[in-house]
Hints:
The protein is α/β, with parallel strands linked by helices and 323 residues long. Helix content is 47%, strand content 9%. Strand 4 (145-151), helix 7 and strand 5 (173-177) form a beta-alpha-beta unit.
Amino acid sequence: MQFGWSVDEAGAFDVLDAYAEAGGNFIDTADCYSSWSASMGGPVNAGGVSEEIVGRWLASRGNRDEMVVATKVRAAMGEQFSDHRGTAAQREGLSRRWIMKACDDSLRRLGVDHIDLYQAHFIDPLVPIEETMSAFTDLVRAGKVRYLGCSNFSAWRLVESLWASDMRNLESFVSVQPEYSLVDPVRSHVEMELAPMCAHYGIGMIPYSPLAGGLLTGKYRRDQPLPDSVRAEENAENRFSDTNWDIIETLVEVAAEEGQTPAQAAIDWLRSKPWVSAPIVGANRPDQLRATIAGLDSRLSPDALAKLDEVSSFRRSRPSLET
């Protein structure tokens, strides 16, 4: 959750309360959330604010032992770390030095004595993966971290890390967090290599952005004016295409036939994939969260899933990839 950017602390507490009341127990955030907020029109935020909000909520509700707390390390933490003062290893990354400091900082902000799932936010090409996994291993064996995961790793980078851990008797990643949804080209990026790799090695997949930044909620329509928001502009630049409009229109049609909202149908499609452990869904308001949770009680029919598979298949637009 990126609390402190799109929702303030009071709103975050409301969302977390609704989540816990519904039986939710997995909270995913990152140390850098949301250091970019000022540049996008939000409050000044050097990073760490989301962890602090989660930590204060855990303390006020007294439910730490009931929650699985996940956070991430790698990204730069505000201007004091990312304005090119000092070396890269001193301000961000996956070096031993930075991982050790970042973990202690996250523990302090969260107000906990251990992190349940500590994740490499994205690859650091300047640091050998052996150094990264060695540092992570020391955190696990010191009791500061329970399990290790990664985010935004390609299949070959993840296999490289598993090999390094196996060869050196180090702790290994148990999960990966990719962007994954119906939209093109995100689906192909996951299903061509990462999904079969996870199935083969027993790696849990916990995908983020299952609604593609709101694109799959049904609020966007082909040839209609954009809502006035930064997110809408981002979608227009990165996700609007004829292929994705076809996907959206089919999703809206299927959802209506199945008695679901487009968002519920998009998440249900993701849940149908055997390599997905659980999708990560964000919400700014309790009603958004409750609408998502309500959709978990129903499942799309095989025919509906087949329609969504067909319209979003990367082989549909790139038949040369058939094997």
